[in-house]
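Standup notes
- DV: blocked on the single-chain target, sequence here:
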Amino acid sequence: MYKIVLFLVISLFLFSDFQYVYSVDQTAPVISDVVASTTSQTSATISWKTNESADSTVNYSLQPDYGVVRVPTADKTTHSITLENLEAGRTYYFRVVSADADGNQGISADYKIQLSGTPQTGQADGSGEGTSQSTTKTTAEIVKEINQIANPVQLKEILNEIVKAIKGITEDLTIIGPPTVVPETNSALVSWTTDRPATSEVRFSASAGFNGNDYTYAQSSPDAKTNNHEIRLIGLEPYTEYSFKVLSIDDYGITGESRNFTFLTKASLPDIKNLRIVKVEENAATLAWDTTVPAKALIEFQDLTTGQQNSVGRPTLATTHQMRLADLTLGTRYVAYVIAENSGGDRVKSQPIQFITVRDIAAPIITNVTNESTIFPGGESRIQTIIEWNTDEPASCLMTYQEGVAGGVDPITIKKDTIEYNTKHVQVIIDFAPATVYQFWLDCSDEAKNSARSENFVLFTPIQEKNIIDLILENFQSTFGWVKNIGGKP
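- DV (later): unblocked, structure below
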C-alpha cells in the first residue's frame, strides 16, 4: 500500500512539473497607444498600453543611442513614466519597452518629442550645476564668428558638430509599416507612409529571374514631397508575380527604403463567346462555347418544372469547351449558365440559355478519322495498323475493311465482345499484309439506336525494306544475268 501511494505522489509531481514546463508564456506583450506629452520645459511624460501585465521602460536620448528609465514591476497594462531634468527646447528620441513576468519583451517603434523653451548653453562646469545663459544668435552672427576662426582644427571640429546636429534632426527617415498594394490586371497601386515629407519612388521587376538586387524598372512621382505616398505601376503583365521596394528621400538627402516585397497581378478576365447547344437528347444535352483566355469550365443548370438545380464542371484550362449534361428528364425545359474561371480564380457568367429535352432522333457524327501502320521486320513481316476516330456523343462503333478499292473481295467486319458507348474510339488491326491497299468504313450507333455510317477511307500498308544482301544480289543479277544460277545446278 505504501509503494502505491508513493508512486501516485511521484507521478503527480512529475505530471505537474511537465504541465508547468509547457505552460510558460512565450508571447511578448503588444504595445499600443504610445503618447508623449511635455509636462514642463525640462520634463516629459510617456504613456502607453500593453495587452497584458508588464513592466515599464523608456529608452531616451538627444541622439538615437537611447538612455533608459525603468519601472521593473510587471504588474500593469497602462504605463506612464515622466522623464525629468531634460534640456529645454531640445528634441528627444525615445522608444518604450515592456516585458511580462516571463521575460517576453515587447519594443515599440521609434518616436521623438520636442520640448518647449529655449536651449541652454554655457554650463559652468562638467557637473551641469553652473549658471546657464540663454542666448539667441542670428545666422549672420554665427557665420561672422566662424569667419573669424583661422585655426583649421577648430573649423574641422565645428564642421563635425554641425554634421552631428543635422544628423540629430534628420537621421533615420522611417518608412512606417509595409507598403500596401492594390493589384489590377495590368497595373498596381502602391502606397506607403514616411515619418516626414519625402519623395516617392518604386523599383520593381518580374519575380521570375529576379536576382534580389537589380530591379528592371523604376517609377517615381513628380509631385511635391509628402508623408503619404502613392504610385500606380503601369504596363504590367496579367497574373504575374512582381518584386518591389519603395524609396523616399527627404530635404536633407536622407534616404529611407523598404525591404523587398512581392505582389501578384490579376489574371485577364475570360470572355465567353459562341455559346451554343450542340445536341439535345431525351435525357441529356451538349453545350459548347469558346473563351478568349484559358479558363476552367462550369455549367449551372435548373429544371424549370421542379426548380431542382445542378452543376457540372471541368478543372482544366482551355479556350474551346464542350460539356454534356446528363441524367435529365424527357420533355422538360431547362435553363443553363456557363461560368468561366481564369487562372487567378476570377469568374464571369454567361447569359442564360434554354432548351427542352426531346427524344433523340439524331445519329452520332463521326469525325477525326486517322490511321497509322507500322511494319515489324523479321522472317515474316507483320503489320500493325491503328485507326482512331471521335463521335460527338457516346456511341458504339464497328469497323469494316476490304482489300483493294475495286471490290471483288468480301468485306470483313471486326466484331466486339461487349458493347460500349464512348466518344473516343480506337481499333487495332494486325491482319493486314505489307504493301497492300485497303479500304475501310465505320458504323456507329448511339444509345437511342440512331445509326450513322462514315465514308470509305483508303490506307496503304508499308512495304518491307530489303536488307543489304538482297540489294547486292539484285544489282548483280541485273548487271550480269547469271546470279540467278547461284545455288542451282550448272
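- Follow-up: Residues 1-23, 121-134 have pLDDT under 50 and may be disordered.
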